[in-house]
Design brief:
By secondary structure, the protein is of the alpha+beta class. The chain has 9 helices and 22 strands. Strand 8 and strand 9 form a beta hairpin. About 5% of the residues have low confidence. The protein binds zinc ion.
């Protein structure tokens, strides 16, 4: 399981958590490895009939090209070189967009993906990162993010150190072999379903499912007979629940200043019997109550330590046991014990049944 995945959401995840949150209009929520957004279309000028080279000796980054030559990141085609299952592959994104590697893996059904090394890039394209582009590139797979579709008059590297191209029409001059959703959604972009600004929140993955298909059954040579007696390779799936993470999340959402606040359904102990003092009648009543609860299949714990009441009470609150039954000499003399609800702090005096 991945640690602390980020989710993009216009729904319940985002509600009331941080300054850029809003009430949801729909329940769209997705892991950032899958999330999409509805970007506003950009209207470009037509630009020249073909790309024009221009010298950019001091340009290494998207920001450099913006600052020195006035091409905003939105008007740049960013060219990333990746090695996808041993094959050097160019990945194109809008200058201000970031690649989600998992989307690249999913799009190509790839087993291994890594950024190309500088020497691999120079060998294939003849230029170092900072001046890369896909215009005129043949013999390498080129993928482009959907946000570049229809874009014109763009700037990109010319595959010659210190030179860029302007007036690039992506479909006319590059014609990527494949279009795909490859970019990372960022907070504030419109929800793909309702248009509300999305929030991006860090979350805990408490469970997951994977469709493994026939990946492992084929590799391991697993087969079964179908209803017609034919041998077939079964599809495989897997799921997992992170028990420790589920506990952590429960505490995160169920606690107060005094400590944890377990819901009864998952509380390690539902009831704490707390006896006050070491008086024999009190101890005996506590033992009876504890035994009776256990017989009734209530998860109970008995705090019979020789501690001050305040210490015992705050320990029960700290560990978040939902109900405390306090047994003391004065109450017993009146035929009562006291039940305290952890969540509300509400006390109820009830008859002590012996
Ligand atoms: Zn929405």
């Amino acid at each position: 399981m991945g640690v602390a995945p980020r989710w993009s959401s216009c729904g319940p995840f985002g509600r009331g958590r941080g300054p850029d949150r809003h009430l949801s209009r729909c329940d769209y929520a997705a892991n950032v490895e899958k999330a999409t957004s509805a970007l506003a279309a950009i209207e470009d000028a037509p630009g020249p009939d073909s790309p024009e080279r221009f010298d950019t000796p001091d340009v290494r980054t998207i920001e450099d090209l913006d600052r020195q030559h006035g091409f905003s990141a939105q008007r740049q085609v960013k060219t990333l070189a990746y090695v996808v299952d041993e094959q050097l592959t160019l990945v194109l994104l809008r200058g201000d967009h970031a690649l989600v590697e998992q989307k690249l893996i999913d799009t190509l059904g790839a087993k291994q993906v890594r950024p190309a090394q500088p020497d691999e890039i120079v060998a294939a394209l003849g230029a170092k990162p900072g001046s890369l582009g896909a215009v005129g590139v043949t013999g390498l797979p080129v993928l482009a993010d959907e946000a570049l579709r229809g874009r014109r008059d763009m700037a990109t590297g010319a595959n010659s150190d210190g030179v860029h191209l302007r007036g690039v029409d992506v479909e006319r001059d590059i014609a990527p072999a494949r279009w795909a959703d490859l970019r990372e959604v960022t907070a504030g972009e419109p929800c793909p379903d309702c248009g509300t600004a999305l929030g991006v929140v860090r979350t805990v993955e408490i469970g997951h499912i994977f469709k493994l298909g026939s990946k492992y059954t084929e590799t391991l040579g697993v087969s079964v007979l179908d209803p017609d007696g034919e041998r077939v390779t079964p599809l495989m799936g897997s799921y997992g629940i992170g028990v420790e993470r589920a506990l952590a999340c429960t505490v995160e959402s169920h606690h107060d200043a005094k400590g944890m606040l377990w819901p009864v359904a998952v509380a390690p102990f539902e009831v704490a019997v707390v006896t006050l003092g070491q008086d024999e009648a009190v101890t005996s009543a506590g033992q009876d109550l504890y035994d009776q609860l256990r017989r009734e299949r209530v998860d109970a714990i008995w705090d019979d330590r020789d501690e001050r009441p305040g210490v015992k009470f705050s320990d029960v609150e700290l560990v978040g046991i939902p109900y405390r039954i306090t047994v003391g000499a004065r109450g017993l003399a009146a035929g009562t014990v006291e039940v305290t609800e952890r969540a509300t702090g509400e006390n109820t005096v009830v008859p002590s049944v012996r």
